[in-house]
Specification:
With about 170 residues, the chain is of the alpha/beta class. The chain is built from four helices and four strands; from the N terminus they run αβαββαβα. Strands 3-2-1-4 form a four-stranded parallel beta sheet, sandwiched between helices. It starts with 13 loop residues before the first helix and ends in a 21-residue tail after the last helix.
Length: about 170
Amino acid sequence: MIVISSQPTTKRSLRSKILRHDNDYGFDPRNEFSTTPPLSVSCVVPYYETGDLGVTAARQLAGTLAEYRTYHDAVVATQLVVVDDGSVVRPFPSGGADFGEELVLVRLKENVGRSAARNVGLKQSTGFDVTIFVDSDVLVQHDQVRRIVELYSLDSTSSKKRDVIVANLFT
């Protein structure tokens, strides 16, 4: 006897089966496995002569931080640190309501390099639970901060504290 199923079979990835959701586009925020801890987040952007692209990148990152804050019931501290690394031709614009109150703009007198600019931003991030570094020529997804912070809560059964997580834009 041959039995023919009337239901079409769809191929799902192992990740989709394990996390019990019906898509392969990432975590479903309504999923019980996707709990983001309310950690304070500082995003550091080393900026050097990037112009409009750098401003757009910082604006998108500010929007991502806003999305992360609205995701939680509790008040979560966030900040966006832009370190202008001695730009002369196209400096980062000072002020701007687009970035909210959380923008901390640090201007260096001369170009000291991307690594040194990141270190300056890291000093401004003291007291925050998570510091995320994003280059000024990278446009982030609207939920990027939340998805990175989720990595801190994926193994809640472990007694080990995660000190460093290295993630890329496709995490």
